[in-house]
């Protein structure tokens, strides 16, 4: 078996730990940007080494706008990680993206503000504008989609992820505007994470789980009960894909 670049999974809402991960080491890290959300967990899933990081901490306590995305990705890179699968809970805008559906998005629109969103600031030698035409690494996206197919998990192979500031959910009018902009999904954690990964030249793909219809897309308001039910149903699919990718990919 060829040695592949070390992979990390960043778990979001509903995925604060990875079942089946045999943890060999828990590392508390400090970075020039502060501490990551949680200790990095180094371990194996099957035979494959993997690093797991809970984006919101474990237990889940850090809201999306307060996650230290810079420290999270820096710590992973510093630990030798070269590829990241980001798991994100999202709201569905596109008709194919209802609750409990898994989606591998291909594009991003960033509506977040005021977050520490770049490593290129302060005392730097030169201004750097990274290319971000394709925010997700296509080979990693395809690996996720192929694994979903092999595992028999229905998975949508496209989607524009609209990243909002939160922590509140959107108004119906905001979702209409986002749909007009071309967004298929709405979530609060997709950015600046994807851009920071690109600045560090890490491979990066998103495995999104739809946990509710976006505001105004159903006949009811969004409740935590509905979100929890979709997480209960859908996170099993996400875990099957992750396990499949690491154990027989
Ligand atoms: N909007 C923004 N973020 C989300 C949603 C939503 O509807 N559901 C889960 N994360």
Task: Annotate the secondary structure layout.
Blueprint: E1 7-11, E2 22-27, E3 40-45, E4 48-54, H1 69-78, E5 83-92, E6 102-103, E7 107-110, H2 138-151, E8 155-156, E9 160-163, H3 172-181, E10 185-187, H4 193-199, E11 203-213, H5 224-248
Parallel strand pairs: 1-4, 1-5, 5-11, 6-8, 7-9, 9-10
Antiparallel strand pairs: 2-3, 3-4, 5-10, 6-11
Helix pairs in contact: 2-5
Bound molecules: hypoxanthine (HPA).
Structure description:
The chain has 249 residues and is α/β, with parallel strands linked by helices. The mean pLDDT is 94. Helix 3 (172-181) links the parallel strand 9 and strand 10 (185-187). It has helices spanning 69-78, 138-151, 172-181, 193-199, 224-248, and strands at residues 7-11, 22-27, 40-45, 48-54, 83-92, 102-103, 107-110, 155-156, 160-163, 185-187, 203-213. The longest helix has 25 residues, at 224-248. Strands 1, 2, 3, 4, 5, 6, 7, 8, 9, 10 and 11 form an 11-stranded mixed sheet that branches. The radius of gyration is 17 Å and the shape is globular. The chain binds hypoxanthine.
Number of strands: 11
What ligands are attached or bound here?
hypoxanthine
Q: Do you know the CATH topology?
A: Rossmann fold
- Measured between the Cα atoms of the first and last residue, the distance is 11 Å
Largest sheet: number of strands, sense, barrel closure: 11 strands, mixed
Please identify, by name, the CATH architecture.
3-Layer(aba) Sandwich
| Mean pLDDT figure | 94
Q: Treating each run of at least 4 consecutive H or I residues as one helix, how many helices? A: 5
What are the secondary-structure elements, in order, as H or E?
Answer: EEEEHEEEHEEHEHEH
């Amino acid at each position: 078996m060829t040695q592949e670049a070390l992979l990390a999974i960043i778990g979001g809402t509903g995925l604060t730990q990875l079942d089946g991960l045999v943890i060999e080491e828990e590392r508390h890290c400090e970075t020039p940007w502060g501490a990551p959300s949680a200790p990095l967990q180094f371990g194996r899933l099957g035979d494959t080494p993997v690093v797991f990081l809970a984006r919101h901490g474990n237990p889940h306590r850090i809201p999306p706008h307060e996650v230290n995305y810079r420290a999270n990705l820096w710590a992973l890179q510093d630990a030798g990680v070269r590829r990241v699968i980001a798991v994100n809970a999202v709201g569905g805008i596109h008709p194919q993206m209802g609750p409990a559906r898994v989606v591998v998005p291909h594009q991003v629109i960033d509506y977040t503000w005021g977050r520490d969103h770049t490593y290129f600031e302060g005392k730097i030698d030169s201004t750097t504008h990274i290319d971000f035409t394709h925010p997700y690494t296509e080979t990693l996206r395809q690996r996720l989609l192929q694994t979903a197919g092999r595992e028999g998990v229905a998975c949508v192979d496209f989607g524009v992820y609209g990243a909002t500031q939160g922590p509140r959910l959107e108004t119906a009018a905001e979702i209409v505007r986002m749909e007009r902009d071309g967004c298929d999904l709405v979530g609060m954690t997709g950015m600046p994470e994807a851009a920071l990964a690109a600045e560090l030249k890490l491979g990066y793909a998103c495995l999104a789980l739809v946990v509710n219809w976006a505001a105004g897309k159903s006949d009811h308001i969004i409740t935590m009960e509905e979100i929890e039910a979709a997480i209960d149903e859908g996170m099993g699919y996400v875990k099957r894909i992750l396990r499949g990718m690491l154990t027989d990919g």
